[in-house]
Amino acid sequence: MTSILIKSPMIYDGTGAPPFVSDILIKNNKIESISNIESTSDRLVIEAHGLAASPGFIDTHTHSDGALLNIPQHAHSLRQGVTTEILGQDGLSYAPLSRENYLLNRKYLSGILGLPPKDLDMSSVTAFRENYDRKVSINTAYCIAHGAIRLETVGFNDKPLRDTSLGKAKELVRRGMEEGAVGLATGMSYFPNAWSDTEEIIELCSVVAEFGGVYVTHLRDKNIDRGFGGGGITEALEISKRSGVKLHFSHFRTDENTAGEVSNRIEEIDQAISEGVDVSLELYPYPTGSTFPLSFFPSYAHEGGLAGLLEKLRNPNEKKLLADYLDNDYPRPINDAVFSYVPKAPKYEGISLARIAKEREVSLGTTICDILLENEGELGYWGSPPLSVAVWEQINQDAMEFLSRPDYMVGSDSIPLGSYPHPRAYGTFPRVVGRFQRKYNAM
């Protein structure tokens, strides 16, 4: 049997055209025909009346860079209908890096990307892509990770990119775009990304713009004094306007503090679009997020990378300062954090920070410091959902209002690690096209 005939599905072709019913003939693993086709004895027939068929989904934002290299089957995405993922998101990835810097970043990012094999070549975008092409079960595209660019030029240090170092960084970006990258991604909540200023990003994006690439950004909320207009939306739009690069906002949605404020959230962006700025956006359909606890720590703590942070935590005086910062000065509540990935102590996966702190009879900040030390930084978490069901429901409604726009996409922001991953890793696309669409009928 060499062909498959899918009979009478409702076909959504991905162009935005109205759906239509037809048959699909697949031969030698390729679609040969979409028309009314007769069944024959040499064809496997799948009766699909009342079902839907479409091209595979593109997940525009994932953190699967490491997980794919360890478990290439990637079943959690395939079972959602995802056939392509865009890697390098939030500026957190592995290329282009020398072997020494790859090993450093591999450890630093282990709480969000896992620990891929040590012996991989990540020295260029070409080398990066070869680690995935025809070796994993899905297609991948790559946004050059801004963090990797900074690490390769000035190391894990709070230094500006200027003159020689900026020239080297721009050349790395140019080479990466020539080798098939689709853009540049920054994560301005993370380090070394957040040590940059607006001018640095404009310079790098000017190179990306030459290739028609995209600037993908997780908005700045660290070192906001270095960002034009205090960072955030204003900085991102300024970068696009001055460099000419296309702009994509990562996981742009409402949350517990902004639920119901869709118009306010998007107003500045819509104004820029009306002025000709090329903007797209994405979200995941959940009211809370997930990342790695390294992001809790202040700027200076990241000097020297993971080794530098762990060294500080081993010093009782510095550890106390950092724990006090987490307990008293961190701008968001951390008591609702639930550990998702603790490979050296899996008993903590699915357990809240507050519960562990209570069991240990120490503060939340001290607990984070201790668990990071015990697990050498390899630690992930996700936040609990809002206590208010009404707020949760409002965030859901906001998501569908955003997704009704033609410039919006779906990106899971998945971190497929541990025994208790955030459900967006395996539920994003069914939630949008199933539960949300049936309930709100917005798309």
UniProtKB/TrEMBL annotation:
<dbReference type="InterPro" id="IPR032466">
    <property type="entry name" value="Metal_Hydrolase"/>
</dbReference>
<dbReference type="InterPro" id="IPR011059">
    <property type="entry name" value="Metal-dep_hydrolase_composite"/>
</dbReference>
<dbReference type="InterPro" id="IPR050378">
    <property type="entry name" value="Metallo-dep_Hydrolases_sf"/>
</dbReference>
<protein>
    <submittedName>
        <fullName>Uncharacterized protein</fullName>
    </submittedName>
</protein>
<dbReference type="GO" id="GO:0016812">
    <property type="term" value="F:hydrolase activity, acting on carbon-nitrogen (but not peptide) bonds, in cyclic amides"/>
</dbReference>
<dbReference type="GO" id="GO:0005829">
    <property type="term" value="C:cytosol"/>
</dbReference>
